[in-house]
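Title: [Solved] FAD/NAD(P)-binding domain-containing protein 3D structure

Original question kept below for reference.
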Amino acid sequence: QVDGKDEVHNIEFDRLVVATGAGPVLDSIPGAEDHAHAFYGLEDAFLVKEKLRELLSSELSSIKVVIIGAGFNGVELSSTIADVLGERGCVTLLSRDDGILKDSKPHNRRTAENSLRKLRVNVETKASVERIEEGSVVFKSESSEEESIQADLILCTAGTRTSGFPGLSKLPQNGRGQLQTTKTLQVKESPGIFALGDIAASTDFSSSTPSKATAQVALQQADYVAWNVYASIADEPALAYRYLDLGEMMSLGDHDASISALDSINLSGKAAVAFRRAVYLARMPTDLHRLRTTASFATRPLVSKANQSLTELLREMS
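Solution (posted by the thread starter after getting help):
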């Protein structure tokens, strides 16, 4: 049942694919909904872009930005913002763990640590955010003492919640609200319904490893779901989901990147930037997208540094 603009539509299905993903969570931190901004989707990227433009055009000699969460999103965002703000920037990255990128490849973690150091990003580890007030973030450090950081802009990249609709509550879920699936990514007890991406609680059939909430996982699951939907209709054998770890790529500001792929390729610096752009172009859905992206890369030297990095920021989110 779908609620349209003017009426409710009942849509019958033989097979259903649920890929509603997840969204940011702000209500877990007191004051976050009023004084912080989530950074998760394209609309968030546009908002951050506008906020940075306002701060750069202000008379502030020091622009203070606090980013909560030191996963991929938080580290890339910290690097980009520090690069954009330059000497005027004072960027702080808060991690609740004893370091950044807890689940990342060692090469990428080391490269990111070095890059953040060069960009003068202050990294606070074992920092538990207690509350967010207007213009400040209050957190407990390793010593369990409360500390406060002043901020002109507070961004939150930590925490997500699955996005669904009322009908999903009737399907088997885990404690995080994800749909429990079989090895063929069919929802348990509902063979006509498939789930993929952040909404699916799935495991790699070959290793029994729970799937991570990444775009790479969702893209690979989409291929399996597409075949298994067809197979269920055409009476063909279904495929058990197996994840192939192709590695990680991350942007670290405008002129740096890090790549760790296939357990043997480790790149950083300009080589990683070039390789990452080549992979990015290859993943574009159409030749028109590739042409536009190539033109964007080619004309970036003609654009101001702030706009370069902000354009990259938006490109990453889209």
